[in-house]
Amino acid sequence: MMRDFTLDTYKLLIGKLKNSVFEFYTLTHVCKNKPEGSYVVFRHDVDRKPENALRMAKLEHEAGIVATYYFRIKNRVFDRECIREISDMGHEVGYHFEDLSSLHGNMDEAVKSFRDHVEEFRKIVPVHTVSMHGSPLSRYDNGELIRKIDLEELGIVCEPYSVVEDLNLIYLTDVGRKWNNSNINLRDKVNSKIDKKYRSTFDIIDALQKELNGKKLMLNIHPERWEEDLVPWLRNAVWQKMKNSGKYVLIRMRHGN
Ligand SMILES: [Zn+2]
Predict the structure, then answer these.
(1) Which of 4, 27, 37, 204 could form a disulfide with 256 if both were Cys (CB 3.0 to 4.6 A apart)?
(2) If you write DSSP's letter for every residue of 92-137 in order, what string do you get?
(3) Which protein residues have a CB closer than 5 Å to ligand 1 (ion)?
(4) 136 CA distance to ligand 1 middle (Å)
């Protein structure tokens, strides 16, 4: 029995993608080269817990694949060491921007702030792409900001939304610890080219042999939602509970609760 949203499950997903003849590319690569054939872009929005991002990046590196990480510049998310380390592994790193909502809708200030922040990132790593933070709690839509910025002039080659549209990618996101959870109303929703809902990562793995076979995918995966597997003491605790209350716990664990 495997729990979902653990690094073990993540490893399984990577293995199955590799077996399904999916290439792994960064956003900049697909944007510049528009490759043929089936591939997957792993887009990681680092909203919190940079240490989880680093752990995921190492795991991917060991598996011989590349991904694209977008870091917020807020507080302790903007961890320079961590950002540099991830970039050194061959992953792409970009800016997860939210300047308009941070500045309460002041567009002129937000444009300036966006440029300054890109420069801040470039002191650490090369930056060719950016992604928008949805800021679900704010009444300001960071999507409006991107339309006011001359990306080309700033040396930004693309952002994920236009890539999904232009290259006809199937977009799947782990938001709400489900996949393509339409119950959660978010701004950073993308026209996903697929109506199917996947309840778990195992459903997606299953679909790789079916409707996702041979397709071009973008998977938006938030590292902070993926934790290490149960530590031994917890496993023991659960085992104890299973012995005590039997089937009920088993069913709950299967549903990932
Ligand atoms: Zn975000």
Answers:
(1) 4
(2) EEEEEE-HHHHTTT-HHHHHHHHHHHHHHHHTTS---BEEE---TT
(3) 45, 47, 133
(4) 9
